[in-house]
Each structure stands twice: as structure tokens, then as C-alpha cells.
Design a protein that fits this description.
The protein is of the alpha/beta class and 330 residues long. It has a single domain, classed as TIM Barrel, CATH 3.20.20.70. It is globular, with a radius of gyration of 19 Å.
Length: 330
């Protein structure tokens, strides 16, 4: 009998949600995703100090005003390159969260990251640029996709975000199952929500069905899981990005995994097509209190971790420098 991880691979592409290169080597996923929080954790691991040192050295000729950004870009691409030595597919590299409301700056940063990958011999087909699913971020992704720069729209919590991303022709979206579950659990004042009522799973199912029913090519990658049941209940989703901890739990659990999402059920759903312009997008998203709060919170948290990472790397680059970097939140 197969373990659940191997069984799940029959229905969905498995992606490792980590910056830990050894974990990626162990689980052999098709793709991998990173973000500032994951890179912050990995960069403090002595095993990956050579990647950090290489990024610092590569930025040695940068000006004082640009050195921090240069080191960060080199670091993200450095981890991405190492990860691509282990996965046959794609790595997701994130644009700074602080650019989430600036279309032009997001686009420029994405092009800069792709240029760095290509200069290092990595074709753009193996890179997904992660961008927050704000209206501004979606517009930047739309422009980038036209030039063959593929995008992963992250911090996605509302149906409005999903519709706008598909209309923009982005390659992939990452709806956050666990953070949706967290918000509703707190709002209801309960320790857990019954498996069949999980709002994060329901959100991804609705998005998947909408995309398949109306023929969108944008892929759905469920993300941010809290427990294996959430993953198993989305078997059949295009991709699932999973932390090493949950990958390990799936690996030791035996059993078949039935397919939960499929095109036939999507076609039979009663979903209706939604037409969005900017005003309707903002209103629909605003009407979803959970999505409004979690998007704003997610941008703040990613930016906070990026700042911690910048300060930690700056301290390594200049050992005499004092830093206010605080431990990352759990």
C-alpha cells in the first residue's frame, strides 16, 4: 500500500514550501516555493552560509544606497538557483511585500530578478515571480506575463482576487487555506472546525471549479496548510505547496488518497461567470472581512520578515554594525 504522499502525487503536483534545501532533496517535489519568512529562517542555518556569503560578495561594488537591495536580490536568486539543482520544475521567488501597492515598482523588481536568473544560466521558464494579489500586483503580473515572465499570485484570500488573477492571465495562484481557516476559527471562538466545513478548503474548491468550468488556464496551488486533512481534501487541485513537517506526516501515513477535485464536478457546478473592473474588484474584496484583514496582515508580516532578513544579512556583511533584528514570529 502506498503512503499518502505518493498516492497524492497521482492527483496533484507536489511543491515544497520551504527554503530548506535538504528538505527539498528528501521529498523530491516537482517545484518549490520560497518567501521572505522561509529565506530568513534558512539564511540563519550554518549549512547555507555559503549562499549568504556569495550574495554579500556579489554586492560588494554596489553603492551604499543600493547595497541592501542588491544583497537581498542576490540572496533570493542564490537560494532559487540551489533549489533548481534539486527540482525539475520551477522555483517561486517573491517580490518585496513593500511594493505590493506599486505596479511599476513591482514590475521593475520582477524583471530585475528574472535578469539575474538568466544571467546565471537559469531560463525564465523555471522561475515563478511571486507577487501579492493586490489590484496593483495583478496589473503588474498581467504585463509580465505578456513578456513570458510567469507569475505566482500569493496572499490570495478572496474570490474577487482569484477572478481578477484569472482574467489577467497569470500562470498560477496560491490561495492560503490555513490562514483562512485560522481567521474563521478565531472568529467563531473554537479550537477546530469540522473537516467537512473547513472554509479554506471550500474557498480553494470554489476557485478550482470556477477556473475549470470557464476554461481558464491559470493553475490553482493550494497553500498554507495547518493539517494533512486539508491537503487530502484538495487532492486533484493542480498543485499543492506543502511544508516539510506536513510532507513528513503524509510520507509516514499509509493509505490511498481519493481524488476530490475534478473537471466533471466543476462543469456541473452552478457557478456563474463574474465580470470585474477595478471598482467591482475592490468592492467585492472589501465585502469579505476575512480576506481584507488577512491580505493586509500578510503583507505586513512578509515585510517584517524581509526587514529582519535585511538586518541579519547587514550584520553579517558588516560585523561591527549593531542591529535591531528580532526573532521571527512563530
Amino acid at each position: 500500500m502506498p503512503n499518502q504522499l505518493e498516492a497524492l502525487k497521482r492527483h496533484s503536483v507536489i511543491v515544497a514550501d520551504t527554503g530548506d534545501i535538504e528538505s527539498i532533496a528528501r521529498f523530491r517535489p516537482q517545484d518549490a516555493t520560497t518567501n521572505p519568512s522561509l529565506i530568513y529562517k534558512a539564511a540563519q542555518d550554518p549549512r547555507y552560509r555559503p549562499i549568504v556569503d556569495e550574495a554579500i560578495a556579489a554586492a560588494r561594488h554596489a553603492t551604499a544606497d543600493t547595497r541592501s537591495d542588491e544583497i537581498m536580490d542576490q540572496l533570493f536568486v542564490g537560494f532559487g538557483r540551489r533549489i533548481l539543482e534539486l527540482v525539475p520544475g520551477r522555483v517561486s521567488t517573491e517580490v518585496a511585500a513593500r511594493l505590493s501597492f506599486d505596479t511599476e515598482a513591482t514590475e521593475a523588481k520582477a524583471r530585475s530578478l528574472i535578469d539575474r536568473y538568466e544571467a546565471a544560466g537559469v531560463p525564465r521558464e523555471h522561475v515563478l515571480i511571486k507577487i501579492a494579489s493586490t489590484w496593483e500586483g495583478i496589473r503588474a503580473a498581467e504585463r509580465l506575463e505578456r513578456d513570458g515572465i510567469h507569475c505566482n499570485l500569493t496572499l490570495l484570500f478572496s474570490f474577487a482576487q482569484a477572478v481578477a488573477c484569472a482574467d489577467a492571465g497569470v500562470t498560477l495562484i496560491s490561495p492560503f487555506v490555513g490562514r483562512i481557516y485560522d481567521w474563521h476559527r478565531k472568529a467563531r471562538g473554537v479550537e477546530d472546525i469540522a473537516r467537512e466545513e473547513d472554509p479554506g478548503v471550500a474557498s480553494v474548491t470554489r476557485i478550482y471549479n470556477y477556473y475549470k468550468k470557464f476554461g481558464y488556464e491559470t493553475q490553482v496551488m493550494g497553500a498554507s496548510f495547518r493539517k494533512t486533512t486539508q491537503i487530502l481534501d484538495l487532492a486533484g487541485c493542480d498543485l499543492l505547496t506543502i511544508s516539510p513537517d506536513l510532507l513528513g506526516k503524509l510520507e509516514v501515513a499509509e493509505g490511498e488518497v481519493p481524488r476530490r477535485l475534478n473537471v466533471a464536478d466543476a462543469d456541473a457546478s452552478d457557478l456563474e461567470r463574474v465580470d470585474l473592473d477595478e471598482k467591482r474588484f475592490r468592492w467585492m474584496h472589501n465585502e469579505d472581512a476575512m480576506a481584507t484583514e488577512k491580505l493586509a496582515e500578510g503583507i505586513r508580516l512578509f515585510d517584517a520578515d524581509a526587514t529582519r532578513l535585511e538586518e541579519a544579512i547587514a550584520a553579517l556583511a558588516d560585523p561591527g554594525r549593531t542591529t535591531s533584528a528580532a526573532p521571527a514570529p512563530p
